[in-house]
Specification:
The chain is of the alpha/beta class. It has helices spanning 52-60, 87-94, 121-138, 157-160, 163-180, 198-201, 210-226, and strands spanning 4-5, 31-37, 64-70, 102-108, 143-146. Helices cover 34% and strands 12% of the residues. Strands 1-3-2-4-5 form a five-stranded parallel β-sheet, sandwiched between helices. The protein is globular, with a radius of gyration of 16 Å.
Length: 228
Amino acid sequence: MPYIDCSGAQPAAQAPLPAACQPGTPVSASTVIMILGDSITGAGQSGAPDPYPAKLQRLLGSEFFVMNFGCGYATMQNTTNAYASSPQWTAVHSAQLGPSPSFICIIQLGSNDAQAQFWNPAGYKSAYLEMISALKKQAPQARVVLSIPPPLGMDGACAQMSKQAIDQELPRIITEISHEAGLEDPIKTNEAFQGENLAALLPDGCHPADAGHSKIAQAFKTHLLYGR
């Protein structure tokens, strides 16, 4: 079954990605799904050997080809770990994306932006809209979908992330960004964790355990196939 892991460590610590990670490479699947994210997305970056993009591939089947472009430590904003400076973004943004197969690009970034040293709502929103604009200019026919990251298990976890920023501000801002960019409503990944034992699903406060990755994969599948 198609699936390729193109994820890696923080942006400045990587070599260029292999040719197999070029989204424009011909594939047999009818739809290619490119998932852009941080270490929550990246295989192995969160200590999870079976991350949600791999689980999503199995849920969707062979008509879809999931590509994992997670990058550890990545931020949306222009920091020293900006996703826009990563090999993952270079591969996605430089690819020649034609009308066939169809392309879905999912972006889930914001958890690292919510660190106390980085959090700037206006700067985050501006950088996000800039990335969306670049993708839409590159591939006007692509379906671009935003995802609200999982909640934070405890305030200050994972390099001083803000629980208020992640749990309250990011959902509102990402929804605003989706509407301003003319996109569909975002994937409400955060809601998949409501009422659950966050200590079990997010052992270090921000990175999902295997059960947490399963919840994200199911939320993605439900949204992509049924729009909810």
